[in-house]
Amino acid sequence: MAPHTTGAPLRIGVLGCADIAWRHTLPAMGRVPEVRLTAVASRDPAKAERFTARFGGAAVQGYEALVDRPDVDAVYVALPTGLHHTWARRALTAGKHVLVEKPLATGLAEAEDLVATAAGHGRWIMDGFMFLHHSQHAAVRRLLDDGAIGEPRLFSSAFGIPPRDPGDVRYRPELGGGALLDVGVYTVRAAQLFLGEELTVAGSVLRRDTGRGIDLGGNALLLSAAGVPAELSFSFQSAYRSTYAIWGSEGRISLQRAYTPPADLRPTLRITRQSGTEERSLPADDQFANLVRAFAHAVRDAAGFAAHGTTLLRHMALVEEIRNRARWAAA
Question: What family does the Swiss-Prot or TrEMBL record give for this protein (predicted)?
Fold first, then answer.
């Protein structure tokens, strides 16, 4: 794995003008001195110009033109899921490191190809699970390690959002739409974070929108190597919810806004035991800036890609198994 050794900021080009890039990721890049935005590409020149007018860099028409720029060290793929494999692979073969919006790909075969391509070209690829880089989860881990709730007996998580505009890209099956690949993947990754990566799928249900050919939500039951279950729920048809909880032999830890806390929010962690409930206010943290910084440091240090690649693949394998084993119900 070839490190970025110049000492200068990592020069990043952006593929796509997605809402998450406008609201979160590109502002975060401006807060991280280890990176510099070089260019933004869109198939619509006006969109690229709107982004660069706010964030800087050059506006580029077409993704190919950006990938081939010599002043781009790394590419942020902010495209619909169904386009992740094509353009992440193209960037890797052009010698660029890649930060790709979650999930890495639509399925395991695509993910395996991307990890192999990155390794073969000595480049780093990372998926954009920003929540992993918020300090609130380390606080939960410390409590678990200290035995605050005894032995874990159950992990549960839910992530749901209200219905979107009917034309939203999340509803287009040819672009990797559906609730599992959009919000469900967060709950799977969180279960791996606390129960270990080698989970298995005991069963799953997906709710089918037959008209559009996607899932609008679902549930999955996973099991850890130690036999601890994880109950996961995800939805495009619900009131907003973003939470997880760990139920132990001596208490329960729960966290709200688990996946999408704003940078200025002080999260509240709740610990419930037989003796009562305690609430702890945790420090605010900037998970998007932390993600960008972690990517820059991974590229610079160029260490541990084999283990990192295994993590990416185990996650996609679980997501694919949830989809393949699902019983389908009417939405």
Answer: Belongs to the Gfo/Idh/MocA family.
